[in-house]
Specification:
Layout (H helix, E strand, L loop, with lengths): L6 H10 L35
Length: about 50
């Protein structure tokens, strides 16, 4: 079976269906960037690696 998912729905599908995997992505997907934003009161500091 094959399905087309967005970023988050694709991650969720792969988590829930054993043996599933991504086989293609849109050209623009490779340029997506994620930012983590936290209030200074959390005490979190910038990290060179994640997690």
């Amino acid at each position: 079976q094959m399905a087309w998912f967005g970023g988050l729905s694709g991650v969720r599908a792969r988590q829930r269906v054993e043996g599933s995997g991504a086989i293609a992505q849109g050209y623009e997907d490779q340029f997506f960037v994620t930012y983590f934003i936290a209030h200074t009161s959390t005490g979190l500091t910038e990290s060179g690696s994640f997690p």
